[in-house]
Structures are given as structure tokens and as C-alpha cells.
Amino acid sequence: MCRELLCLFCFVLLIKNVRTTCDGQTGPVGMVDCISVDGYSMKQWGTCLTDSYIRQKSGNQHRCANQTRTYCYYQCMLELYDVSSGTVTSTCICNDSSISTTTQGSPTTSSLSGDCLSPDGSSCSWYEDCLEHRYSCQNTPAGYAIEYMTKFCNLYTTRKDKFTSIGQQWIDGVRKCLQVEFVPFLRPFQHVNCLTIHDKAFASYTPCYLNPDFGITSICKLDFLVDWLQIFWTIKSSYDHLKPSIALASLHRAYEMIKSCYVDRPIMNYQAYYRQLQLTIDIIKTTTINLSTTGNEELNAIVLNIINRMNDMFLKISQDDFGLYGYFVTFSTEPSRDNYRSMIIEFHLADLQAINNNINSTNTRLDAVVNKFKGELIKGNLLVQNDDGLFYIWKSSNCVDMNCEATWDETVAPSYSPKNNANTVNNFYLIYALFLLKDIFFQSGY
Fold first, then answer.
1. Which domains, and CATH codes, for the chain?
2. Each residue of 383-397: pLDDT tens digit?
3. Claim: this prediction has a pTM higher than 0.85
4. Distance (Å, rounded) from C-alpha 149 to C-alpha 290?
């Protein structure tokens, strides 16, 4: 780390044998050169960049030494590794013979605009125009991650007026922060693969949410009702239209991070907008999935499939009007009352219209959905069958806080009866047998 930011001051003064010049007022942004910098073992690449980008990328730890400059060089070891002296890595190392080949760049590098190399976060097409222009990752996990970030960016644009003024500043900061995180990949001396892009995409959300930009508040200090609920359900709406395995991982990471900010906040204060329930589910049977060896991300996907199937079968509510979400918490250590293995999950239900319009009165719409859910549970109807197996939801409790360490209003279903399921199967075979007999009679001329 630079001491009092002097490393940039020394860096500018001690450049030797520079082939081109980074003008303090005109740049141009993105120009690279092979430079010598005091304190490093060898020459390294330096990129002409805006002071704004340098401050954003470094968390305000680095800036141009001459504060009247809009542009200055940023050495590779600082930009990529935050290292102000010592050995130069193979990625950053350069020599005079490599100047012409690297600075000219490939066609996909040299044709990038200045907005690509120093983004301000205002354009959601940055991912397609800049990142995908350099790296072709279509139909890969990285491609889906880029698609997710683009949709995520656009959703915040369309819903920006729903946030507080501080929340709007946070949105702008996060969009810029996420794009800035990828800019080093666009350098002509950088060559990464699609897996690296994928990993970077999901690693960037937490730091950008917590510290989006200098002077912009953390997500933990936003208004819970107006901003937090909008943020989470905006992310969830992105998930609904994209490849589940990619977006669901990001969705749950975002939820866990946000939950850590508001862990002690009473959920009961927001019942007009949002409910959080803890459910106990008996695993009657599974298909090809071995739950004992299944990771948490896949278990979260299984839980969300159960919730969506339950909605299709029993609640029948539109997810444009109501937000549904759920995730795996743990397996019960003891067999259930009916001697099945059980899992504990959390089920989240939100009235999106109430959240979007900030309705403060008692919300009968959400009450009606929750009461319908509990009514089906009390009747023992919540037997859910999907591609993952057969699951019986038999207990529900309201969470008091976001960690659901305390609950209230427990509702319990009657014991699961295998006979009911067996009767369904037997009826199927009886009907099938009657059709066979019918064909036999017709063929025999009766």
C-alpha cells in the first residue's frame, strides 16, 4: 500500500524511457507504456488513467500525485496487486522489445473506447460493448454471469425512482464499482479465461455493496423498507429470467450479506410488506439426488423448486405481484415424528406492490396469501412432488428476526399418511388396467 500516496508521486517522477506521454489534461485514457519505477525489480506496464478511476479502483488509497491532473500513469503492480515495491510479476513485466506488440494490442483491445477503460457506471451496455467485445464467453457460466450483471444493471435503472436519494447514490456507486472491477481485464497485457471472469463477477458483489465508492454509504446503512427490500427483490426478479444455477448463487450471497447488516432487526415491523417463515419438510422420497452429498447451492435450488411447485399446486399467486424465495438451512438431526428425514428451510414472501408503492396500512393481500398457505398446511395438503422427489411440508413458524433465532405462531399439519399416496398410485394402475381390458374386448369382438 502506498504510504500517504507518495508512491504515485515517485512513480510519476521516476519514469524512464517512456515511448509516449500521458498528458495530465487530455490523456489519452488506456494508453500503456513500459516504464521503470523506483522500488521495483524490473520494468512494468503503466496505463494512462483518470484520477477518478484510480481512486475508485484503490478504494481511495491511490491517486495522481499532482492533484491538478485529470490523467496520470498507474503502474501494473499497483492496479492489479496493490503492491508498491519489490518483484514485478510475469503479468506486469515488460521490456523495450515488447512495447510495439503489446501497446498496439489485438483488434478487440485496440478498438475499445475510453468509456470502456474508465467507466462511470452510467451505461449498462458496458458489459456487452467492452467486456464481451474483448472476451467471447457466450454459452458459458461467465457468459450467463455477464448477462445477469447487465439485466441487474438495467433493473436498477428502471426502478431507481423507488429508492431514497441515498439509495439512488448507492445504486450509481455499485454500478460503477462492478464495472471498474473488470477494467484491468481489458488491459492489452492481461489475458484471462472465462472461468476467471465468472469468479470475478460473483466475488465483486460483496465489496461493491459494502463499499461502492468513496463518500457513498454502505448497503448496511440504507433504509430497510424503502431500499433493502427493493434491492433484494430486484435481484430476485433478475434471477427469474436467467439460468438458475448462475443467478441463484448470486441471489443467496446477496441475501446473506444483507442479512448480516440487519440481523437483529425485527421482521414483525414489516408484516405489511414481507413475511419470513421457517418450514419443516419431511423428505418422503428423492429421485437420483443423494442429499447427504449434495452441496448447499444445489440444496438451495431444490428448496426453491419445492416452493415454486407448491405455489403452482396450492397458492397459485403471480410472482409479478408477490415475491417468493426460499433456501436450505439444515437437516434435522433426529428423524421426524413420522420417522422421515427432515430439512429446515426458510420461506420468504413479499407483496411487491406494497413494497413498490410503500403502503403503510395493514396489508390484507399478504394476510390472505399467508392464511391460504397455513390453511393448506393444516389440512395436510402440502405434499409436493417434483423432479427432485416427494416432500411433505408439515410445520411452519413465523420468524421474529432475520436469523430466525426466535419464532412464533407455530402451525402443524397432520401426520403424513403413505396410504393416501398409495391410493393415488393404485387408482392410476386400476384405470390403466381398465383401458387394457377395453382394448382386449374390442379386439375380441365383444
1. 1-104 (no CATH), 114-262 (no CATH), 267-415 (3.30.70)
2. 999 989 999 999 999
3. no
4. 32
